[in-house]
Amino acid sequence: MRITTFFLDKILQLAAFILLGLVLGVLVWRVIDAGYFQQWRKLPIVPVKFGELAMAGRGDIYANATDGKTYRCTSWKGECWIQDQAPTDIHFAGEVTKPCNFSLPEFFFLANPPINSVSCIQARTDYGDGFSKYAYVLDRSNDVWEWSHPVSAYSSYFMMFAFPGAGLLVGLVVGIVSLRHRGRNQMHRDSSRLT
């Protein structure tokens, strides 16, 4: 009976390590997939004084200048602050939030969000195989900051299995090493009692 209890105890300890590794893997996957570690970057210098950010979507940001003109920056194309009209098509951007929801991952302290926001806008653009989330901030120094987090179906599915799987394997290895170490210590204590 003592041997059965001994092995059952070891199996339960190993299962606890495996479960802990799996939970940590899922946690890491969810944090990375949400964009908590994406960093903000400053867009090129603004040529005029901006009053507010007007519209965002598909990687474009439109800003209204204090002189009444509207300017567009498409950072992924390298075209910034070209005079343009903001689109009026409601399907252009997908989902737009203005003012920003500061409880989302882009404003988490590790993302190093800009401070002293004058205007803020968030957008989500859906594509055939994923989506991109964007956030833009106009600060008091007239600088515009961009945060973006592209998510493809392929990367999401990969991370959904890779991180929990890696956590499970790490939990298994740590569990086996821990049980072997405890077993050696127990054998050493038992042998020292006999002598």
Radius of gyration over all CA atoms, rounded: 26 Å
Which strand order do you get reading across the main beta sheet? 1-9-8-7-6
Mean pLDDT: 86
Q: What amount of the residues lies in strands?
A: 25-35%
Query: What pattern of helices and strands is seen along the backbone?
Result: HEEEEEEEEEH
Distance between the termini: 26 Å
The overall strand count is: 9
Oligomer: single chain
Description of the structure:
This protein starts with a helix and ends with a helix. The chain is built from 2 helices and 9 strands, in the order H-E-E-E-E-E-E-E-E-E-H. The mean pLDDT is 86. Helix 1 runs antiparallel to helix 2. The longest helix has 42 residues, at 153-194. The strands form 2 sheets. It has a 5-stranded antiparallel β-sheet. A 4-stranded antiparallel β-sheet has the order 2-3-4-5, with no helix packed on it. The protein is α+β, with helices and mostly antiparallel strands and 195 residues long. It is elongated, with a radius of gyration of 26 Å. 38% of the residues lie in helices and 30% in strands.
